[in-house]
C-alpha cells in the first residue's frame, strides 16, 4: 500500500494525522514514503521508524544535503530517489544500505560518488546522469558486481574505470554526453551487455577498442557524434547487433557506400576485412583467435550472408537527437520522464 507523508515539524499534529489517527503500530507497516516535489530545503525530523521504509522518494526538491544519521537508519531501503535536487555530495553512510537495489541521484551537482557506495553490493541500477562527475572510482566495478544498469550520461567523465569490465551482470551502459577519450580495452567480460551508448563525446572519443567485437549479447550500439574515423573489424562478429548509430563521425571505414546499404552490408564488409586480416600473420592475430574461441568468427563471412530480418536494415538509420540546448537537468525535461509515480506505482 502506498502512503504519502505530509511534511511537518515533529511537535505539530497535522490534520491528516488527526483524521487518520496514526499510531506507532501503523507506522510499522509503512513501505513507501513520498516527499517529492514539495520544495524541501531540508529534511524534517522523522517521526517513524526509518527501518520500516523500503522506498523513499525525495526527488524534485531543493535539498543541498542528506543527513548522515538519517541515511544510516534506512536499513531496509530498496529504492532511493533523490533526483533533481541541489546535492553536491552523498552521505558516506550510504554504504550502510546493503539492501539498496535502485539509486537515482540524477540532476544534482555531485562531482564525486562516495567510496562507501561500493558497499551497496545489492545495487542493480545506478542513475547519476546530469551531475558534475569528473571520474568514477577505479574499484567501482570490483564491488558493484550486481549492477545491471549504469547511467552516467551528461557529466564530465574523461574515462571509464577498467574495473567496469568486471560487472558481468551489466546490461545497459549509458555514458553519452561526457568527455570520454577512450573505452576500457577488456570489454569482453561484459557478456550480458545489450545496450552501449557512448554517443556525443564529440572530438574526445576517436577510436573504439577491438574487444567490442566480443560483446556477443550486444543489441544496440550508439557511437554517434564522436571523432571516430573507422570501426573495428570485430564489430562484424556481433551476431545479435540490430541497431547501430554512427551519425556525426568522420568515418572513412567502412566507406559511405557500404553504410548506405544498411547494417547487414556493414557487418559483411567488416567481417570480410577481418577475414583478410586472419590470413595476414601480422594483423590482430590474438584478437581473431579470441573471436574464434568465443564462436563469433569462423575465418570467413559466410554467416553474414544468411538472411537477416528486414528490421535490421531499418534499424541502421541515423538517429534523431535532441539539440544540445535541449539537454538540461531532468527537472526541465518532458513531464513523466522521471515521474516518481511511475517509479513507485503498484504495477512497477
List the helices and strands and how they pair.
Elements: H1 15-20, H2 24-27, E1 32-34, E2 55-57, H3 68-72, E3 79-81, E4 102-104, E5 125-127, H4 140-143, E6 149-151, E7 172-174, E8 195-197, E9 220-222, E10 243-245, H5 256-259, H6 263-279, H7 285-293, H8 310-315, H9 340-343
What is the H/E string? HHEEHEEEHEEEEEHHHHH
Shape: elongated
**CATH topology of the largest domain, which one?**
Leucine-rich repeat, LRR (right-handed beta-alpha superhelix)
Structural class: alpha/beta
Task: Identify the CATH architecture of the largest domain.
Answer: Alpha-Beta Horseshoe
What fraction of the residues are assigned to beta strands by DSSP? 5-15%
**Mean pLDDT across every amino acid position:** 80
Domain count: the total is: 2
Protein architecture, described:
Keywords: Leucine-rich repeat, Repeat. It comes from Momordica charantia. InterPro entries: Leu-rich_rpt, Leu-rich_rpt_typical-subtyp, LRR_dom_sf, LRR_domain-containing. With 348 residues, this protein is α/β, with parallel strands linked by helices. It has 2 domains: 26-132, Ribonuclease Inhibitor (Leucine-rich repeat, LRR (right-handed beta-alpha superhelix)); 137-277, Ribonuclease Inhibitor (Leucine-rich repeat, LRR (right-handed beta-alpha superhelix)), CATH 3.80.10. The chain contains 9 helices and 10 strands. A 10-stranded parallel beta sheet has the order 1-2-3-4-5-6-7-8-9-10, with no helix packed on it.
